[in-house]
Amino acid sequence: MDRVCTSRFLLSSFSSTHSFYPHKHFCDARTGKQKTSITYIAEGNVTIKTAGREIPAKAGDLIYLPDGMKYTSAWTGDPNVEFYSVHFDFSHLRETRIDRTFEIQSISKDQTGDLGELFRSILENYGKDDSERLLALSNFYLLWSKILPLLYTSEKISFSPQITAALEFIEAKYLDNFPVSELAKHCHLSESRLYHKFSDEMHCSPIHYRNSLRIQKAIEYLRDGNYSISEISDKLNFNSVIYFRKIFKSMTGFAPMEYKKIRREQK
C-alpha cells in the first residue's frame, strides 16, 4: 500500500462565509492578504480579472482562488448574487503548501455535480458545537477530494518589476494626489509606457487603482458608521463629495448611503 502524506492536508486556519447582494457586486482583492478559498456560485455570474486573464463562471460553478492572488471580481445577478465560500490555509511544512501550487481557476458543475448542499452544510455546521464542527470539516475534506484531481498548476502569475514597484508606491501613498509623472519616474518608465504596462497587467489605470484603494477604505468607514459621507470624502482626499459618490458607485454598483443601508440590513 502506498504511504499517504496526510500532513500535507493539515489545516492551520478555516472559515466559511455566505454572501448575498441584490443585482450586482464588485470585489477588489488587489490589496491585503487573501487566504486560499473555494467559492460556490448559487446565483448570478462573475468575471474574475487577474494579471492578463479573465475567468468567467456561472451559477453552479466553483472558483478556486489560491492564497495571495491579486484580482478583481465583477458579479451580476438576475436578480441576485449569492455565493458560499470556504477560506483556509494548510499548515506550513518543509515543502510548499499544497493549496498554493494550484492556479486560479473556475470548475464547471458539469465536472463536479452541484455541490451547493455541501457548502451549505459546511456553513451551517461549522458555527455549532465540536461534533458539528467536525462534520463541517469532514465535508470540507470531501469537497477537497472532489476538486483536487481537477485543479491544475502552471507558472505562478506575477507582476513585472516595474508594476510591482508601481503597486507598492500607490499602496503606500494612495491618500496623496500625486501626479502620474511622479509614479512613472519612480518606476523608471515614461508616462505612456507606464499606462500601457499597468493596463496590460492590472486591467485598469494607476488612478483607478488608487481610487479602488480609497473605496476599500471608504467601505471600512461605512461599516464602522462613525463618519458622514462628507467626512469620508475628506479623509480619503477626494476632490469633492460628488466625485467620491460617483467613484464609489462606479466601483461597487451602489451609492455610499445605499451600501450603508444594505450592510445594516444584512446584520
Topology:
Layout: E1 11-29, E2 36-43, E3 45-50, E4 53-58, E5 62-65, E6 71-90, E7 105-107, H1 109-112, H2 116-126, H3 130-147, H4 161-173, H5 180-186, H6 191-202, H7 206-224, H8 229-235, H9 241-252, H10 256-266
Antiparallel strand pairs: 1-6, 2-5, 2-6, 3-4, 3-6, 5-7
Helix pairs in contact: 2-3, 4-7
Brief synopsis:
The chain is of the alpha+beta class.
Q: In words, what does this structure look like?
A:
The chain folds into two domains: 7-150, Regulatory protein AraC (Jelly Rolls, Sandwich); 161-266, Homeodomain-like (Arc Repressor Mutant, subunit A). The protein has ten helices and seven strands. It is of the alpha+beta class. Helix 2 (116-126) packs antiparallel against helix 3 and helix 4 packs parallel to helix 7 (206-224). Residues 1-6 have low confidence and may be disordered. It is globular and about 55 Å long. Strands 1, 2, 3, 4, 5, 6 and 7 form a seven-stranded antiparallel beta sheet that branches. Strand 3 (45-50) and strand 4 form a beta hairpin.
Any descriptors?
alpha+beta, 267 residues, Jelly Rolls, 2 domains, seven-stranded antiparallel β-sheet, Arc Repressor Mutant, subunit A, single chain, 25% strand, globular, 43% helix
Q: Might you state the CATH topology name of the largest domain?
A: Jelly Rolls
Number of structural units classed as domains: 2
Q: Give helix % range.
A: 40-55%
| N-to-C CA distance | 51 Å
The secondary-structure element order is EEEEEEEHHHHHHHHHH
What is the typical, i.e. mean, pLDDT? 85
Oligomer: single chain
Number of helices: 10
CATH C-level class of the largest domain is Mainly Beta
Q: What's the total count of β strands? A: 7
Percentage beta strand:
15-25%
- Look at the structure and name the CATH superfamily of the largest domain: Regulatory protein AraC
- The rough form would be described as globular
Enumerate the spans where pLDDT stays under 50 for 5 or more consecutive residues: 1-6
Biggest beta sheet summary: 7 strands, antiparallel
The CATH architecture of the largest domain comes to: Sandwich
Class from helix and strand fractions: alpha+beta
